[in-house]
Design goal:
This protein is mainly beta. Among the domains are: 116 residues, no CATH class; 107 residues, no CATH class; 28 residues. It is built from 4 helices and 34 strands. Strands 2, 3, 4, 5, 6, 7, 8 and 9 form an 8-stranded antiparallel beta sheet that branches. Strands 14, 15, 16, 17, 18 and 19 form a 6-stranded antiparallel beta sheet that branches. β8 and β9 form a beta hairpin.
């Protein structure tokens, strides 16, 4: 027993060494993967004439890009008009153009409305094909098919996370308060759902904020205000209505105030932040249970003020609804405790330069010169963190060529295993681990174990020599 027990203790010691090695593999910064090829994107221009990235289609091997080909109207060059875009579907593996099409903006957008999950563009026909101003449609980039439908004064809200559906609202012509909601199937052009507010019982009924899709059961979240306008409405409620079964009675939650746009997860949880309050409150509502599962700060400790934060930070919620990111803090929805808090050297929401197209993760820029001084002045990094747990998925070096004025925008296709920036450089994804730095630190971590083993070995041999020398 005395012989085998020390040998057994080496197992947890080397297991700890291996576990630390896995942590180094994840935490140590990686260099960007070498450029596999460079796409022949159109040269950089000012505002137009540049081929810009939309993203990978369904995270697959095809990449969607667009170029602004709008022409200035001769009769009035200052009159705003719909922009026109030349769309291209590229194969990054072979640098070939699979498909091209010219469409106009759905309304006054500066870039096409792109549903990356199914490769659909929501747009208007180009000026040479348009017959009236209400004509809209959806272009399937994978097949090139066009689905036409008419929408008069409807504004786009969002795409369904998994289906080829789009949600629209229609606003009051004077107050611009949303008064109607519409769901359209983009593959068939058929209207799936329609809701209209109006005047009933002597009071006006309208949407208090934008409706949202609830993907877990294909229903619609409708925050409703009744009486006056949105700011002076005395009563609030939320209705959850089924999109497929219009005759089904809605689930109604009275007194639930959701006056500000919310974000949804595929698990049926919604999060929103009200910019009125000190501090501004954050709420997460679970549509399955019909209850608010996170309120920060709690309802009793909230102080209502007239202060409105115009630059209200973005709220993001993980696909499984477990984590919500707001104002530099990632919260665990179920326990209400913070999982990650932004440090003085960190800046979140840098997905444009970090890489768009990753679900359930967010990028954090890390500037180390404030902590390490001039030694780390040019050694800045980016960390990719899990939106549900906050743990680091990988960390990479920021190239010295990425400056505040010119940092390449990147899109990532996880299924394709590729990353493309707006310079046309194609790299593999994820970047390879920093094996040289990993081996260096692993060697240092193994030195105490090796020296301990050598010392015990020397002690054992010394005892054997002393025992043999005794008479």
């Amino acid at each position: 027993m005395r012989r085998w027990l020390p040998r057994f203790l080496w197992v947890p010691a080397w297991s700890l060494w291996a576990w630390l090695g896995w942590g180094l593999y994840r935490e140590l910064p990686r260099s960007p993967a070498p450029v596999v090829r460079t796409l022949s994107l159109k040269a950089f221009g000012f505002d137009r004439g540049e081929e810009q990235l939309l993203g990978f289609i369904a995270n697959g091997p095809l990449l969607a890009t667009f170029e602004d080909v709008s022409s200035v109207p001769r009769e009035n060059p200052f009159r705003e008009r719909r922009r026109e875009f030349k769309l291209r579907v590229r194969d990054p593996d072979h640098d070939i153009i699979v498909r091209e099409a010219v469409v106009a903006a759905f309304d006054r957008e500066r870039s096409p409305l792109f549903a990356a999950q199914n490769g659909i563009i929501l747009a208007s026909p180009s000026s040479d094909r348009r017959t009236n101003d209400t004509e809209r449609g959806a272009l399937d980039l994978r097949t090139g098919s066009w689905t036409a439908f008419n929408l008069d004064r409807w504004s786009f809200v969002e795409f369904h996370p998994t289906r080829a559906w789009a949600l629209f609202t229609q606003s009051h012509s004077v107050t611009y308060d949303p008064q109607a909601a519409l769901v359209v199937d983009l593959r068939t052009g058929r209207t799936l759902f329609e809701w209209h507010g109006g005047r009933a019982d002597g009071s006006e009924t309208m949407l208090s904020s934008s409706p949202r899709f609830l993907a877990h059961d294909d229903s619609l979240w409708l925050p409703i205000a009744k009486g006056g306008d949105i700011l002076t409405a005395p009563t609030f409620r939320v209705e959850i209505r089924s999109i497929h079964n219009r005759g089904k009675a809605p689930r109604v939650f009275h007194g639930l105030r959701a006056e500000y746009p919310s974000v949804t997860s595929e698990s049926g949880r919604l999060a929103w932040r009200c910019p009125v309050g000190d501090p501004p409150p954050l709420d997460v509502f679970d549509a399955r249970s019909g209850a608010v599962v996170l309120a920060h700060p709690s309802s009793k400790s909230r102080r209502q003020t007239a202060k409105v934060d115009v630059f209200d930070p973005e709220v993001r919620i993980s696909p499984d609804g477990r984590g919500v990111l707001c104002d530099g803090t990632l919260w665990d929805v179920d326990s209400g405790r913070p999982l990650w808090t932004r440090g003085a050297h960190e800046v979140e929401n840098v997905d444009r330069t970090g890489g768009r197209g990753l679900r359930g993760a967010f990028w954090v820029a890390e500037v180390w010169d404030g902590l390490l001084g001039d030694l780390a002045k040019a050694q800045n990094t980016r960390a990719l963190r899990d939106l549900a747990t906050g743990r680091v998925l990988l960390r990479e070096w920021v190239p010295e060529t990425d400056t505040f004025f010119r940092a390449p925008e990147r899109v990532i296709g996880e299924k394709a295993g590729l990353m493309v920036d707006d310079l046309g450089d194609v790299r593999s994804w994820p970047p390879p681990a920093n094996w040289g730095l990993n081996t260096f630190f692993q060697t240092i971590l193994s030195l105490p174990l090796i020296l301990t083993w050598l010392a015990l070995r020397w002690r054992h041999k010394r005892r054997l020599r002393m025992a043999s020398a005794l008479p």
